[in-house]
């Protein structure tokens, strides 16, 4: 029988190296057990990481869609709130105008006109609304307030209707100014004439949330409120009957405006619904892919725990052997 002996130094190095290996193994297994992810991913997947890369890329795309979805939803809901306020004010003023008796009255006309001026100011403020520093109704130019002030609007309209003595002529002059490219669009509108580009909110879904302050429904409402506001304009001298006729004609215009605003709210609501549905589909797809990803990268907790317990036992055994070996000496052997 051949006996092989090792020197003390070689034996010491062997024990030390073995101790280091076991400690590293325990550290790796502990990390796997705490994170749930395998440290030998390449080995687990047989060296082919293509499928895992595809899953990661799909998850990354879905996360980017989630961000775009959130932004589009916030943009649409904020626009919807402003349109709702505009519609409600126009509807209330319409109701108040038609509730007035057929007898002309300066006090009533002044009261309704002042109410219209307040609503017109709110309308301009609403169409200048923004969310996260981006204008809602300025098209592609999201950094500029779309509309000039109430005072700018009234100053230009007073100039247009100065000297006119009939309600028909005044209403026509205001309508012409709003419809003239050199009128409202040039004087009041500062935004872009181009709408915002569609936003991709899903793998096969995109939406366009882009409204302009120059859209017909908005201009019709602003025009109607402006006519009512002119009734109490200090720069104009209008008799009682003329004021009354202007308000009655405004009521008819406002009724048409509210119908257009309702249609706009409906269209925007449809877009909000698509965004919500797409968000739900994206969330479901992300959940499924996350399960697949976890299945690919996760470590078996039972196997990991067993291997960790085994490595700890081996390390403890090694410590015991090392301790006993370190106590060996020639004197103890001879005695």
UniProtKB/TrEMBL annotation:
Main subcellular localisation: other
Pfam families: Flagellin_C (PF00700)
GO molecular function, one term: structural molecule activity
Any one GO cellular component localisation term in the record: bacterial-type flagellum
Gene3D superfamilies tied to this protein: f41 fragment of flagellin, N-terminal domain (1.20.1330.10)
Localization: Bacterial flagellum
Positions of the Flagellin C-terminal domain: 258-334
Keywords per UniProt: Bacterial flagellum, Cell projection, Cilium, Flagellum
Family: Belongs to the bacterial flagellin family.
PANTHER family referenced in this protein's UniProt entry, alphabetically: FLAGELLAR HOOK-ASSOCIATED PROTEIN 3 (PTHR42792:SF1), FLAGELLIN (PTHR42792)
Name of the protein in question: Flagellar hook-associated protein FlgL
Organism encoding this protein: Phaeobacter italicus
